[in-house]
Structure formats: structure tokens, C-alpha cells
Amino acid sequence: MAGNLAQYCPAALYAGGCTTQGCTLLHNVKLCELCCVICVSQSVYNAHIRGNHHRKNSTNREKPNVFPFCIICERDIGNLSSWGSHLAGAAHRKAAIRRGVSARIEPPSASQLAHRAQHCPLCSTTVLKLRWHGHIKTTDHKKREAVAAHKGAFEHAEQDKEGVCISPDGGVDFGVVKLDESRTGVHKVLIVHLVPGAPGVVVERADVFDKSNRISSSFAVQMAGGGPLVDGEDMQLRVSLTQADYGRYDGHIEVHFRRLSPNRQFVIVRPVCAIVGDKLDRELLKAATPHVPRKRVPWKNGQKYYPGRRPPALVAVPWVRKLKAYPIPPALVATLRDSSLDDLTQTMRSKHLPPAFNATTHCTHFKTLLWAEEWRMETDLRRYDLADVTFTKEGALYYLVVPGLAEKRPSVVVGDQIEVQASGADPTGRCFAGFVHDVRLGDVGVAFHVSFKPAQAVLFNVRFKLNRIPLRRQHEALGVLPMPSDRVLFPLPSHVGAFPQTNVPLALYNPSIANNAPQLQAVHRILQRPAGLAPFIIFGPPGTGKTVTVVEAIQQLLQRNPDTHILACAPSNSAADILAERLMALGPEKLFRYYAVSRTRSAVPEQLLLFTYINPEGYFSVPALSTLAKYQVIVSTCGSASFAYGVGLPQGHFNHIFVDEAGQATEVEVMTSVRTMVTSTTNIVLSGDPKQLGPIIRSSAARDLGLGVSYLERLMERDAYSVHSGRGVAFVKLVKNFRSHRAILNYPNESFYANELEVCGPPSSINSFIGWPHLVSRKFPVIFHSISGQDEREASSPSYFNIDEITVLKDYIQKLKAEAKYKISDEEIGIIAPYRAQVHKIRKALSTVAADVKVASVEEFQGQERRVIILSTVRSTRDLLQYDQRYTLGFVANPRRFNVAVTRAKALLIVVGNASVLSTDPLWRRFLNYINLNDGWRGEPISWDPTAPVQDDAEYANELREQGVAGLAAFMQRMQTYGGNSDATADELESGANMERVFVEPE
């Protein structure tokens, strides 16, 4: 029928009637706008509105009275919740001025739209009349049309007819079936009943069709008995489920009848479904409440602010350079506020970014992107606002419980501001801006104005203010003069230099490097480089020892020249701590670890406290400038590295600046250390992997315009770092992998590293799961477990979880812990999931089974390794992949996230996911082919030819959609034989997607 909709008149379908004289199209088609169902006749429509589906929707849904269509701008704005922000936008105000009307208008009603525009209930959008005919011909509309027609046909087929009733009328739901029971088979019964007095019928056959077009269905149906049914007789249909794997299984049963007199055929359909899983898991992990979009916390603007007491930590460092404010320029604010997310990238490029990107415009370019990121960060913080909360007084501080604090959602540190106002009517009109003095695991202590004395029952609304200090330091660094030369920002092959490359024997601090030619080569090149060349890069794929190489190079430089001064940085405190810990042999007289004043002592490794300076008040600070200048090595995060400039160390003080894990830092973060200290003689060394995760960016516009490209990655794309001329001179690629079994490493090695990585891990580690009885192939320690689960959400969280996958991975965890021969501790197992909700659900499911297994996102696993890694990919809905791709979530269409995820495992990698969804991405399709061809596949069988070449430009998602449409069309054709989306705005979607991201450590 989907194809036959062209026979029906669009005016009859969408306008309620046709006024065209002599129209030859069919007019007996009806659209139920409430249910988005197309009915092919008046009788089918009448049956629909009497049916359960329509009655349920009539109760739970309301047909819209007004529409989010701006009659001034003549466009649909997507969502009524965005109406106010649209009216406040500059584009709308300008359009109102041009028309000479007030900009303050209400959303129009259907009658107001009647002569100007038409609402499309299938697409949830309103279209100008002159564009209507074009709209209904679009691919998206046609796809929704086909689905609506299918819904109508299926609903009609479900209705009892011709005196035949099939009970239960809701079909067969097996519920949650245990795996051992589904393997042996379970069954239920459908009763076919002919009402007394109805003409006799013959049950000709009963067929089962699987919803996902599997090769073989999990369901079967048998007729008990046969022959005609007459005058009130019954017949049983025995429906069975037989399935050897976990997952969700859906289909429908088509019962075909022939009426005896007059001779006529008809069909009645019943749905059938089952979940093969664990009832206890489902009860424990099910959504506590249905998902509903999050509501913004009410906030009264224009109130009088009462500042609180600032913490002493904020003045702990004796700064000699005043840090400017660097506010977002008003013109850019207007663009960020008024542009739609779809238009923002192009508007910023044309209006605010310099036309060329070079050393002269570098500062302006990145300042603009940094401001765009700040705007997005501030917007995202609004999702963490709290409503109707209370404070608990402890001493001079008021403590507030902050959900998600331990996960940095939101990130709150000492010195941050929190704004508070009464949630109800407040005649005083006051807003208190308190300062955070104490951060604990789940709550923060805030110092407010002395007049803040809330009664016990008073409720407050709370806003978290963005800590702008790290952003201001980055702006400061970008503007430091003199500006670095091209050899730092845009190096050419001539900046690499030609110098002797003789390898003088070294007395190595780490003897293992002696047998690792690339590591040794990198150390030699760093030692031999004359001052003032282009940055040198240590390209370190997973498990190849980047940090080991950096530490050895630092030690060798100091051994060669004790007067050398080195600044060593990393994007995160954890990575900087690793650097400092491996350099502790230098002693506290030569090594200084700087921490931002907001860092708490409890967050610092005990062994590193000896290498810090704590002022008499107990806060992290810096010693006297003369003492600071004597340290041979200073270690800090990239974001804090400009402290040296801020306290008065002169530019050029450091001979070398090292940035480890440089691929994870934005270019501006690296510049915070480089631009403040570099001179014409400073050597820069970057260590990282451009094939792994880059910096965390919240603004899609800033990401698209280059903020998501690290300094390391940008340099490696330049001719100076080409494989042919730059390798061994401008960069060295480490190739000895000490982490993973060959079966785990093979695919990422081929896909990302030109097949150059060598398997060098200790056999006792990487081979420790060969022969494990639960491998599909005893010699191949990689498993892909194919399962069709379901994406779910709960409450107001935008994050997704998949209980079906959790049941599978929990089963693997129990099998891992049960095998004495393959003994493994919780700490040696890691579980990676791309969505925060899935992480929480997995932790909950494992709390009594393996509580110490680390469960986290890919970002939290970068740089780490485990003997066993299990990936839960979550996605089971193809339509959500575009959301993931746009906001760089999930594993599909995100090569770097995929690369990091599959390269964390030493001895065993298990991937749990929906093969049909993952296979839409060519990178994943090849990976699944690789596993299948090496006998690592378990679960639902592969649905494509794994030996067929995979094309990078192939539209595999379209291929699967076409298969789905073909399934709908086949059903519609069979029925015809017998005659019988989200409203969220783009801005809300981006903000929701950013809920998956932690806020980057401020300093």
C-alpha cells in the first residue's frame, strides 16, 4: 500500500476534501491526525476511531490548538518551548520592523494558519501553502507516510471480523523468559472463536513473520485441529518460542481465513513478542519513571545580588600580572544568541572569523572559537540547575547536595559561584551569590552573604556559575607578545632543520628502551635538536610507551645539562600526576608539581605532596620566585601552565616544553603553556596519538570550525610532518605494542596505523585467555555478541540505557569469575559504555556481583588498560545514529572513540551490540566481518555477506532502511490481497547530548 498511496488524492488525505474538478485520484482515504494513521476507507477509519489505539491516544494526547509557526518570519520554529527565545532573536525583531508590526505575537491557531500555512502532523512541522506540494513529495515525508499507512493497515488487520474473534486481542506476550527455558521452548495459546450465528469459516493457515526480518523466526505457530468452524466453535493456535540467545524478539501472526458462503478470504493479525533475559535484572534496572523532557528551573532575573565571602584560596598565589576579564564581544553574543544551531557555523565563519588562518590571525581565530565554547558551556550548565532544594548549615558554611558531583556533572571546585534565590514568592527580591569553600563527594559547602539566614522549610532554586578563570587564562595566553613565529604555529619543512643524527650511546634510566628502536630514536632526536626548531612529535599509538619515552627524554636532557629548565604538562591532573610520579627520583629540590588553588589535598596522590608548595593557610600555592626559578622540572596541567607567566617567570626561562597526551588538549590549552613561555630558542615536544580521542568540545559550531582539532593533529597534517620527509626528523612513530593480543590489535592496527604495530606484550598476559571455555573459538580471544535490545530513557534524563545488553555482559562477568583456571580480579576487568545512563545501570547490576569492576565512558578509559574489556554499544535504533553522529556520541561513525574502546584490552575483548545498527558504519562493518570470519561471532546470526568488500562511501543505513520498507511493503501487499518524531529543538538536542560529557577539569 505504501507504493499505492500515489493513487489517493493528497487534498482528500491532508485537507479533508478535494475541490479539483475531474480529479481522477481516489478520495476514500482518511488521516487520523491524532494517531498519525492513514486509513484507506471510511469504514476502516470508523473502525480505527472506535479502536483501543485511538481511544488511548484520545486520553493521553491533545490535538494542538496552536502551532510553533512564526507568521512574521514565515517559518516553523520546531517547538512551542522555543517560542520565547525565537521572539527575542534579532532576526525575528528585524523581520517585524520590516513588516511594521509588533514582534510580540502569540503562536497562531489552526484558523489563523488556514490561508497561509498548513500543519503536517506526520512530520510535526508547519509549512507555507506555497511550499506544501513540495513538502509532501520529500523523501522524509514519504517515509512517514508509508509508516502511517502501515500502521493503519496493521491496525485494520488486527480487528476481529466476519464473526471471528481471536483472543487475547492483544496478541501473545511471552514476557521475560529465562534463557534455559527459551532454549528448550515455551508456548502459549491463541483461541480462534466463531460467534454463534455467524457464517462458517475455514482456517486455511497461520504464518509467523519476524519484525526484524531475521532469516529464521524465533516463533512458530501450529493449528490444533482443522476443518471448518461453525456456529460458536473454537480452535486453538499453539504459539511457541524457541531461542538460544538473549534479546528482544517481536513479530506478528497472520491467520488466514476463508468464509464458506459467500466464498471470501480475509486475515486477522496478532502481535507476538518475547524478551529472553533475566526478570530480576529487568525489575532492578527498569525505568523508575517514564521519560519526559526536562523542564527548565524557574529563575527571576533582575533581582538584587548579595555576594558571599570569597575563599582564601583565591588569593593564595602571589600573581604579578593581573588577569583581564575577556568578556564575549556583544556582536558575537548576538550571533550566538540569535542564530539557529544549523546556521551558527556558517554565520560565525562569515561574520566573526578572519578570512585566512595564519600566524597573524591565529589569536583572533581561537579567541572567537573559545568564546563560542564558553557560551555553550554556560548554556549547558543550565541543565544542572536545581529546583526546590534546601541547605544544611555546618559551621559558617551551608552545604548543598549536588547530584552528579562525583562524576563532574556538573564540575564544581573551590572558588566557584553558586546563585540562589527563593523558589516561591519573595518580596525582598534577593539573589544570593555564594562562593564554594568546600567540595566533598556528594555536596559542596558555600559561604553566603551574612543576611542569608534561611528558615528550615524554605526552598531555593540554584544556578551554577561557569568558572571563567581557565578560559580567561587561555585568552591571556593567546594575546601574549611577542607572537610566536611560524616555526611554532605553522611550521614548514625548512623549520624542521638539517642536523647530524648520530646516535651516541646513552646510559638509560629505563633499560627496556634499549631494545625499543623507535623509543630510543625519539630520545636521541630530542637530545640532538638545536634550539628553535619546529615542535618535535612523539606519535604514540595505544600501548607503545609514549610517557615512558617522554620521561626518559627529560632525564637525559637534565643529565646532559643540569642547568636545563623544563616545563612538563598534560591536559588532565591524572596525566600530569603520572608524569610527576615517574620523575620523583629527581627529588623535591629539582621537581615541583604545581596545583591550582582549587585543587583539594585529598585529590592529590600522597607521594606527590612532598613536591608541592602549601602556604601557611593550607592552600596550594607557589614558593618565592627565586626558589621557583631553581627547579629543573615543573609539572602542571596545560590549563594551569600559564601560572609561571602569571607569577613572573620570564619568557624563555624553560629550555624545553613537553606536552604529554597532547592529542587530548585543545590547541588553545597547549598554547596556554607554549605562548606564555616560548621564545625563539625554546624547544617544544608533543607526545600523543591523533588517531585516539581528541579534546572534549561542547559547542558543535566551535568543533566544526576547528576547536576540536588538537595542536598535535593540526601539525601532523602539515608537510613538515609528512611520512616521507618528516618521519625520524620531525616526528617518530612508536610501533611496539606491549598491551594487546594479536587478535585484539590486528583490526585497529590495519585501520589506523598502517599495519606497523608489532605485538610485543608478555605472553603470560596477552595469552592468558586463550582456551577460555566461553570463547567461540578457543584461539581467538575476541567475541562479538549480537543482540537486539531496546534503547530506553527515564525521568528527565536525555541519556540512554539498554537492559538487554546489561543482562548479557553480566552473564559474561559471572562466567569470568567462575573459572578458577582463568582467575581474574574485578580490578582487571573494564566495561566501557558510551552513555551515562548505561554506565549507572551497569554499576547497579554488578553491585552484588563485581562491585570493583570499573564501568565508565571511553574518555575515562583513554590511557588505561585491563586484561578484559567488555563494550556495551547500547544503540538498537538506527534512527538515533544521526543524533549520535552530529553530537559525536556513541561508537558508530566515530572512529577515534571506536579505536580507543577496542584497544584497551590486553587478553580478551567482548563486544555486545546490535549488529544491524553497528553495520551501518563501514568501519564497524569491517570489524564485524573480521570477527565473524575468525569464528568470534555469537548470538543472532550475521545478516549480510561478511566476505563482500566494504565500501567507505556505501549507504549501509539506507540499505537497511530499504530492507525495512520492503518488509512493510510486503505486509501491506498481503493485507491488500484481502481488501483489508521528537519535538526537541537543535539547541535542546545539543545540550542533551552534552549531558554525556563531563565538564573538563578547570585547572
Describe this structure in words.
- The structure is a single chain.
- Among the domains are: 3-67 and 108-154, no CATH class; 160-277, Immunoglobulins (Immunoglobulin-like, Sandwich), CATH 2.60.40; 514-736, Rossmann fold; 742-954, P-loop containing nucleotide triphosphate hydrolases (Rossmann fold).
- Mean pLDDT is 90; it is low at 979-983.
- With 1003 residues, it is an alpha/beta fold.
- The strands form nine sheets. Strands 16, 17, 18, 19, 20, 21, 22 and 23 form an eight-stranded mixed sheet that branches. A seven-stranded parallel sheet has the order 26-27-25-28-29-24-30, sandwiched between helices.
Primary descriptors:
1003 residues; Immunoglobulin-like; ATP binding; seven-stranded parallel beta sheet; MOV-10-like_beta-barrel; eight-stranded mixed beta sheet; hydrolase; alpha/beta; Rossmann fold
